[in-house]
Design brief:
Blueprint: H1 2-27, H2 40-58, H3 69-107, E1 114-117, E2 122-125, H4 126-141, H5 145-158, H6 167-188, H7 190-209, H8 215-254
Antiparallel strand pairs: 1-2
Helix pairs in contact: 1-2, 1-3, 3-4, 3-5, 3-6, 3-8, 5-8, 7-8
Length: 256
């Protein structure tokens, strides 16, 4: 009886704890499940359920014997660090929508309109909040959340258990992902930058041709109107581009 209990603790419970630490820490900050508007209890139970389902698969990557108390604490900390790293990468790719929203709001004359962004749990731009919520919806509609789960599972090959990850390489990779996410956001807002530039060039020419016309009284309403029209025409293309870039980023992360 004692041998059976010891075997259960060393295989079942030990494997579940390590699996939950890595996957749970990743799911807590991933886009969608890790958003602030999702109750903490739902996030906890979802992470527990997914960890329990994936435990038979992750058990092959875990050590056969339970380490000492100090070794177990170190191992849990390393698993938490790896899960936090993977969840952060997915969250940074999601931040491209908020970056695009801030640029679009500034270019459309709505930069001073601040609303509560539930995805970031803070004040943000009006367009940024809209793009963030829509991006999370499309993330689940396009089944890209499967890549998040597959990536968390595939991290056991990229970051083996009981091996200290290279913190320098991790920091460098995070910097590259931040740069790529910012570039994606700027590219998404490029039509609005071009539109605003052309509109202000035209207003500048109009003020020189007809000085009596108050161009600044016409610029802001026209800027908002043209931006709304452009948003309606290009919204599907913007999200199609973002979904393709998000998918490519997650697939790249899956490759060992």
């Amino acid at each position: 009886m004692e041998a059976t209990l010891t075997e259960f603790l060393s295989t079942g419970v030990f494997a579940f704890i390590l699996t939950f630490v890595r996957l749970g820490s990743a799911f807590m900050i991933m886009p969608g499940l890790g958003d602030s508007f999702v109750p903490e209890r739902i996030r906890l139970w979802t992470a527990l359920s997914i960890s329990f389902v994936l435990m038979p698969i992750t058990a092959d990557y875990l050590p056969a014997e339970m380490p000492s108390t100090f070794g177990l604490v170190v191992l849990v900390f390393l698993e938490f660090l790896i899960g936090l790293f993977f969840g952060t990468i997915a969250r940074i790719f999601m931040m491209a929508t908020d970056t695009a929203g801030m640029v679009i709001s500034t270019m459309s004359g709505l930069g001073s309109a601040q609303v509560f962004n539930p995805s970031l749990a803070t004040q943000g731009s009006l367009v940024g909040a809209f793009l963030s919520i829509t991006g999370v919806t499309l993330l689940f509609t396009a089944d890209l959340h499967h890549l998040l789960i597959a990536g968390a599972l595939d991290s056991y090959q990229t970051f083996p258990v009981q091996e200290v990850p290279d913190l320098g390489s991790m920091a460098e990779f995070v910097a590259k992902v931040v740069s790529a996410s910012f570039a994606i956001g700027v590219k998404m807002s490029a039509p609005f930058i071009v539109l605003t530039l052309l509109m202000y060039v035209g207003m500048g020419v109009l003020s020189r041709v007809m000085p009596q016309v108050q161009v600044f009284m016409l610029a802001l309403p026209l800027q908002v109107l043209l931006s709304v029209i452009l948003m309606g025409l290009s919204l599907s293309a913007l999200f199609a581009y973002w979904l393709s870039q998000f998918e490519q980023g997650m697939i790249f992360l899956l490759s060992p």
